[in-house]
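Hi Y.,

Following your request, here is the sequence exactly as I used it, all 219 residues.
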Amino acid sequence: MIKAVIFDMDGLMVDTETVYFIALQQIAQKRGKDFPMALKRAMIGKQGVISMDIFKEYLVLNETAEDLLVEREDVYGGILNKTELVPLDGLPELLLLIDTMGIPAAIASSSAEQWIRLVINKLGISDRFKAIVSGDNVKNSKPYPDIYLLAAKRLGVLPQYCLALEDTPTGIEAAKRAGMICVAVPNHYSKGLDFSMADMVINSLEDVENKVLRKYAKI
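Below is the corresponding structure, written out as C-alpha coordinates. Let me know if you'd prefer a different format.
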Protein backbone atom coordinates (compact mmCIF):
# COMPACT_ATOMS: atom_id res chain seq x y z
CA MET A 1 0.00 0.00 0.00
CA ILE A 2 1.49 3.33 -1.06
CA LYS A 3 1.35 6.03 1.60
CA ALA A 4 3.72 8.54 -0.02
CA VAL A 5 5.16 9.41 -3.44
CA ILE A 6 8.74 10.61 -3.79
CA PHE A 7 9.82 12.28 -7.01
CA ASP A 8 13.22 12.67 -8.55
CA MET A 9 13.34 16.05 -10.31
CA ASP A 10 15.74 16.40 -13.25
CA GLY A 11 14.41 14.62 -16.31
CA LEU A 12 11.36 13.31 -14.45
CA MET A 13 9.36 16.37 -13.41
CA VAL A 14 10.91 18.81 -15.85
CA ASP A 15 13.40 18.73 -18.71
CA THR A 16 16.35 20.32 -16.92
CA GLU A 17 18.54 17.61 -18.46
CA THR A 18 18.59 19.66 -21.66
CA VAL A 19 19.75 22.69 -19.67
CA TYR A 20 22.56 20.57 -18.20
CA PHE A 21 23.40 19.33 -21.70
CA ILE A 22 23.70 22.88 -23.05
CA ALA A 23 25.80 23.97 -20.06
CA LEU A 24 28.22 21.06 -20.42
CA GLN A 25 28.36 21.54 -24.16
CA GLN A 26 29.45 25.14 -23.61
CA ILE A 27 32.10 24.09 -21.08
CA ALA A 28 33.46 21.45 -23.46
CA GLN A 29 33.46 23.78 -26.49
CA LYS A 30 35.32 26.41 -24.48
CA ARG A 31 38.15 23.86 -24.34
CA GLY A 32 37.90 22.87 -27.98
CA LYS A 33 36.10 19.61 -27.17
CA ASP A 34 32.83 18.03 -28.25
CA PHE A 35 30.21 16.87 -25.75
CA PRO A 36 28.71 13.68 -27.25
CA MET A 37 25.44 12.09 -26.23
CA ALA A 38 27.37 9.02 -25.05
CA LEU A 39 29.10 11.15 -22.42
CA LYS A 40 25.82 12.74 -21.34
CA ARG A 41 24.29 9.29 -20.87
CA ALA A 42 27.31 8.14 -18.84
CA MET A 43 26.88 11.14 -16.52
CA ILE A 44 23.10 11.10 -16.15
CA GLY A 45 21.85 10.54 -12.63
CA LYS A 46 25.32 10.83 -11.09
CA GLN A 47 26.07 13.21 -8.22
CA GLY A 48 27.91 16.44 -9.05
CA VAL A 49 31.59 15.68 -8.42
CA ILE A 50 31.22 12.10 -9.65
CA SER A 51 29.58 13.23 -12.89
CA MET A 52 32.25 15.88 -13.47
CA ASP A 53 34.98 13.33 -12.86
CA ILE A 54 33.46 11.27 -15.69
CA PHE A 55 33.38 14.45 -17.80
CA LYS A 56 37.02 15.23 -16.99
CA GLU A 57 38.30 11.73 -17.74
CA TYR A 58 36.31 11.30 -20.96
CA LEU A 59 37.45 14.64 -22.40
CA VAL A 60 40.98 14.39 -20.92
CA LEU A 61 40.86 17.74 -19.10
CA ASN A 62 43.47 19.14 -16.71
CA GLU A 63 41.10 20.80 -14.22
CA THR A 64 39.88 19.00 -11.11
CA ALA A 65 36.36 17.62 -11.02
CA GLU A 66 35.65 20.04 -8.16
CA ASP A 67 36.69 23.07 -10.22
CA LEU A 68 34.68 21.84 -13.20
CA LEU A 69 31.65 21.41 -10.95
CA VAL A 70 31.91 25.02 -9.78
CA GLU A 71 32.03 26.14 -13.41
CA ARG A 72 29.13 23.89 -14.34
CA GLU A 73 26.95 25.23 -11.56
CA ASP A 74 27.69 28.79 -12.65
CA VAL A 75 26.94 28.14 -16.32
CA TYR A 76 23.91 25.93 -15.56
CA GLY A 77 22.45 28.50 -13.14
CA GLY A 78 22.80 31.28 -15.70
CA ILE A 79 20.96 29.27 -18.35
CA LEU A 80 18.33 27.94 -15.94
CA ASN A 81 17.44 31.43 -14.71
CA LYS A 82 16.69 32.51 -18.29
CA THR A 83 14.85 29.33 -19.33
CA GLU A 84 11.08 29.03 -19.34
CA LEU A 85 10.29 25.68 -17.78
CA VAL A 86 7.21 23.55 -18.29
CA PRO A 87 6.29 20.39 -16.35
CA LEU A 88 6.68 17.09 -18.16
CA ASP A 89 3.51 15.34 -19.30
CA GLY A 90 1.28 14.24 -16.46
CA LEU A 91 3.02 15.99 -13.58
CA PRO A 92 0.36 18.60 -12.66
CA GLU A 93 -2.44 16.04 -12.90
CA LEU A 94 -0.52 13.48 -10.83
CA LEU A 95 0.27 15.99 -8.09
CA LEU A 96 -3.39 17.00 -7.94
CA LEU A 97 -4.52 13.37 -7.85
CA ILE A 98 -2.28 12.26 -4.99
CA ASP A 99 -3.17 15.41 -3.06
CA THR A 100 -6.84 14.56 -3.49
CA MET A 101 -6.08 11.03 -2.28
CA GLY A 102 -4.33 12.39 0.81
CA ILE A 103 -0.96 10.94 -0.28
CA PRO A 104 1.93 13.29 0.59
CA ALA A 105 4.68 14.02 -1.93
CA ALA A 106 8.39 14.74 -1.57
CA ILE A 107 11.34 15.47 -3.84
CA ALA A 108 14.56 13.46 -3.55
CA SER A 109 17.07 14.91 -6.00
CA SER A 110 20.85 14.94 -6.25
CA SER A 111 20.66 18.54 -7.44
CA ALA A 112 21.57 21.43 -5.17
CA GLU A 113 18.65 22.70 -3.11
CA GLN A 114 18.84 26.15 -4.72
CA TRP A 115 18.15 24.61 -8.13
CA ILE A 116 15.32 22.44 -6.83
CA ARG A 117 13.59 25.44 -5.29
CA LEU A 118 14.18 27.57 -8.38
CA VAL A 119 12.64 24.89 -10.61
CA ILE A 120 9.54 24.22 -8.52
CA ASN A 121 8.98 27.95 -8.06
CA LYS A 122 9.17 28.44 -11.83
CA LEU A 123 6.68 25.59 -12.27
CA GLY A 124 4.38 26.98 -9.58
CA ILE A 125 4.28 23.71 -7.63
CA SER A 126 6.36 24.51 -4.55
CA ASP A 127 3.33 24.08 -2.28
CA ARG A 128 2.77 20.49 -3.47
CA PHE A 129 5.69 18.97 -1.58
CA LYS A 130 5.84 18.26 2.13
CA ALA A 131 9.56 17.50 2.05
CA ILE A 132 12.52 18.34 -0.18
CA VAL A 133 15.82 16.47 0.08
CA SER A 134 18.77 17.51 -2.07
CA GLY A 135 22.29 16.28 -2.61
CA ASP A 136 23.33 18.99 -0.14
CA ASN A 137 21.48 17.23 2.68
CA VAL A 138 23.23 13.86 2.68
CA LYS A 139 26.78 12.54 2.82
CA ASN A 140 26.23 9.94 0.11
CA SER A 141 24.12 10.78 -2.92
CA LYS A 142 22.50 8.33 -5.35
CA PRO A 143 23.01 5.37 -5.91
CA TYR A 144 23.27 5.27 -2.11
CA PRO A 145 19.85 5.21 -0.43
CA ASP A 146 20.48 8.17 1.89
CA ILE A 147 18.39 10.73 -0.04
CA TYR A 148 15.36 8.45 -0.16
CA LEU A 149 15.64 7.35 3.45
CA LEU A 150 15.80 10.99 4.58
CA ALA A 151 12.82 11.90 2.41
CA ALA A 152 10.76 9.07 3.94
CA LYS A 153 11.83 10.16 7.43
CA ARG A 154 10.80 13.75 6.78
CA LEU A 155 7.43 12.56 5.48
CA GLY A 156 6.99 10.30 8.50
CA VAL A 157 6.37 7.26 6.27
CA LEU A 158 8.22 3.95 6.38
CA PRO A 159 10.28 3.35 3.20
CA GLN A 160 8.37 0.21 2.23
CA TYR A 161 5.21 2.32 1.89
CA CYS A 162 6.84 4.87 -0.43
CA LEU A 163 6.64 4.96 -4.22
CA ALA A 164 9.73 6.44 -5.85
CA LEU A 165 9.53 7.79 -9.39
CA GLU A 166 12.86 7.86 -11.22
CA ASP A 167 14.29 8.34 -14.70
CA THR A 168 17.80 6.85 -14.30
CA PRO A 169 19.30 3.51 -13.23
CA THR A 170 21.33 5.33 -10.56
CA GLY A 171 18.19 6.75 -8.97
CA ILE A 172 16.37 3.44 -9.20
CA GLU A 173 19.21 1.70 -7.39
CA ALA A 174 19.05 4.30 -4.62
CA ALA A 175 15.31 3.88 -4.16
CA LYS A 176 15.45 0.07 -4.19
CA ARG A 177 18.33 0.07 -1.69
CA ALA A 178 16.08 2.22 0.52
CA GLY A 179 13.46 -0.53 0.35
CA MET A 180 10.93 1.38 -1.75
CA ILE A 181 8.72 0.52 -4.68
CA CYS A 182 10.36 2.20 -7.66
CA VAL A 183 8.87 2.95 -11.05
CA ALA A 184 11.07 4.06 -13.96
CA VAL A 185 9.97 6.83 -16.29
CA PRO A 186 12.75 7.05 -18.92
CA ASN A 187 13.33 10.34 -20.71
CA HIS A 188 15.00 11.25 -24.00
CA TYR A 189 18.48 10.94 -22.48
CA SER A 190 17.99 7.84 -20.34
CA LYS A 191 15.82 5.79 -22.71
CA GLY A 192 17.48 2.47 -23.47
CA LEU A 193 19.52 2.31 -20.26
CA ASP A 194 19.25 -0.63 -17.85
CA PHE A 195 16.05 -0.30 -15.81
CA SER A 196 15.96 -3.94 -14.69
CA MET A 197 16.00 -2.98 -11.00
CA ALA A 198 12.72 -1.07 -11.33
CA ASP A 199 9.44 -2.64 -10.27
CA MET A 200 7.82 -1.24 -13.39
CA VAL A 201 8.76 0.88 -16.42
CA ILE A 202 6.20 3.33 -17.85
CA ASN A 203 6.24 5.84 -20.69
CA SER A 204 5.35 9.01 -18.79
CA LEU A 205 3.88 10.34 -15.56
CA GLU A 206 0.50 10.19 -17.31
CA ASP A 207 0.63 6.40 -16.81
CA VAL A 208 1.05 6.54 -13.03
CA GLU A 209 -2.66 6.68 -12.20
CA ASN A 210 -3.79 3.67 -14.23
CA LYS A 211 -0.67 1.51 -14.25
CA VAL A 212 0.91 2.24 -10.86
CA LEU A 213 -1.55 3.63 -8.34
CA ARG A 214 -4.24 1.13 -9.29
CA LYS A 215 -1.77 -1.65 -8.54
CA TYR A 216 -0.02 -0.31 -5.47
CA ALA A 217 -2.45 2.20 -3.93
CA LYS A 218 -5.64 0.21 -4.52
CA ILE A 219 -7.58 3.03 -6.16
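Strands lie at 4-7, 105-108, 131-133, 162-166, 181-184, 200-201.

Thanks again,
Q.
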